[in-house]
Specification:
The chain has helices spanning about 30-40, 50-60, 95-105, 120-125, 130-135, 155-160, 185-195, 210-215, 235-240, 250-260; strands at about 10-15, 45, 65-70, 75-80, 85-90, 145, 165-170, 175-180, 200-205, 220, 245. By secondary structure, the chain is α/β, with parallel strands linked by helices. The strands form three sheets. It has a five-stranded parallel sheet. A three-stranded antiparallel sheet has the order 3-4-5, covered by helices on one side. It is globular and about 55 Å long.
Length: about 260
């Protein structure tokens, strides 16, 4: 690999299950985040979360870098004068939500959208309730929903594709998106928007919806869970295409970033 000190890098990272554990704790990576900011290396969240959720994280982590939300549905940033901007990259929530209902009817199986969860359901499925759940529910360019039974997943994918849509899977929810929406395509759009075609990317993720990002990165890291890497990411690790972090969640994230970018 080229010397990380000799070229410009972005760290582009998933949040839930990668930089954060499933209780949303990222504290083991706090010192590494500060080191990256001191070194002038942007830390770009690339997540299924909403812009509101990412803005809350950025404020806590003292980040000012751009970010990618809703599995690539939009990119966000700030101008040099600190004016916020955003760019949608696919169909909006109001166009997608009726399609989820149509898919549910075609499959004869309920597909419960995230915005329909009660506080009790949100707490049980996501560990979120109250305003935190509402921030996750206020979608602009994706419709997350409770994963259906395994028996219908292939048919669901086929029916969605026939409508020009896609279903991507995270750790806890499925997400209905435009067919061309992905974390990888959003990264390309962000490079174009910021006039950074040649920047090197260290990408980190933990679940299938991160594959489009990991596949286009210069360095790609799979962050394992407590039981190891996600089965759908193992082939990339076993082939040597992806690095495997040496610990789960924020601890592994920090170790991999420091090692690969030679921060110490």
């Amino acid at each position: 690999m080229s010397d990380p000190q000799s070229c410009r890098w972005w760290v582009v990272t998933d949040l839930d299950g990668t930089l954060m554990d499933h209780h949303y704790d990222w504290s083991p990576a706090a010192a590494t985040l500060r080191s990256l900011q001191r070194a002038g290396v942007p830390v770009i969240p690339c997540t299924s979360k909403t812009a509101e959720e990412v803005e809350r994280f950025r404020a806590a982590a003292l980040l000012r870098d751009p970010y990618i939300v809703e599995n690539g549905g939009a990119i966000h940033g700030e101008t040099p004068t600190c004016e916020p901007w955003d760019q949608a990259l696919g169909p909006g929530w109001s166009a997608l939500k009726p399609r989820l209902q149509e898919l549910s009817e075609q499959l004869s199986e309920p597909l419960q959208a995230l915005d329909e969860l009660t506080d009790a359901e949100g707490e049980r499925l996501l560990g979120l309730s109250g305003e935190l759940l509402q921030q996750a529910q206020r979608r602009r360019c994706s419709v997350p929903f409770v994963p259906p039974s395994a028996a219908i997943q292939r048919r669901l994918d086929a029916l969605a594709a026939a409508q020009g849509l896609a279903v991507v899977r995270g750790n806890r929810m499925c997400h209905l998106l435009g067919a061309e929406v992905s974390k990888g395509n959003a990264l390309a759009a962000l490079k174009q928007r910021l006039h950074e075609p040649d920047v090197k990317v260290l990408a980190l993720g933990d679940s299938p919806n991160d594959l489009p990002l990991l596949e286009v990165a210069d360095l790609a890291v799979v962050v394992p869970g407590a039981e190891g890497p996600h089965p759908q990411l193992r082939p990339g690790v076993e082939s040597g295409r992806f690095e495997l972090a040496r610990a789960p969640h924020a601890e592994g994230w920090a170790e991999a970033v420091e090692r690969l970018l030679q921060l110490r």
